[in-house]
Design goal:
Blueprint (H helix, E strand, L loop, with lengths): L9 E5 L14 E2 L4 E2 L3 E10 L5 E9 L8 E9 L4 E7 L12 E8 L8 E9 L11 E2 L8 E5 L5 E3 L2
Parallel strand pairs: 4-12
Antiparallel strand pairs: 1-2, 1-11, 3-4, 3-10, 4-5, 5-8, 6-7, 6-9, 9-11
Length: about 160
């Protein structure tokens, strides 16, 4: 039986355009403090090196309320501490009509073009798919920043293993 390593469970909530080098150390929140419009709770994130050295990221979610105003897409960006995007992936591999309260969703994203820079971050968020041209960003509900539109996790906080 293989050991399951729990996902990293803390993140910084901020607006999507903020750069991580502006964050303060006392603003970290446990992942359970972040929900997407009351529909999904962010449970954490895990990372894996794939054989081709790309970085595979799993985001973990708990369904709080399966009824949504529109289909959603989750995004994960690999960024520098200055906020420059190096790679990104998005999608939602689940039919929202099949979700039930309490379901746990694990969404996997492949991030290409990874460098060995030690000062890299993940920027995680979601947008409604009502109008693909506008990609309306979903606001995260949390106790610290009511305007937050993304979660940020430094790669140094992840336990990154070889891809299963």
């Amino acid at each position: 039986m293989s050991r399951v390593i729990p996902p990293t469970t803390d993140a910084y909530a901020a607006t999507i355009d903020q750069a991580p080098d502006s964050f303060q150390d006392n603003a970290w929140l446990p992942s359970t403090g972040h929900t997407l419009n009351g529909h999904l709770r962010f449970l954490g994130v895990k990372g894996y090196w794939s054989p081709n050295r790309s970085l595979d990221i799993e985001t973990w979610w708990e369904v709080l309320d399966p009824s949504t105003e529109a289909p959603v897409s989750i995004f994960v960006h690999l960024i520098t501490s200055k906020g420059h995007a190096l790679a990104g992936a998005d999608g939602w591999g689940v039919d929202s009509n099949t979700l039930h309260t309490g379901d746990i969703i694990v969404q996997r994203h492949a991030l290409d073009n990874h460098t060995e820079d030690s000062d890299l971050w993940l920027r995680i968020g979601a947008y409604w798919l009502t109008d693909p041209a506008t990609r309306k960003i979903v606001v995260w509900h949390n106790d610290r920043d009511p305007e937050a539109t993304a979660l940020f996790v430094p790669l140094t906080r992840l336990h990154i293993t070889q891809s299963p």
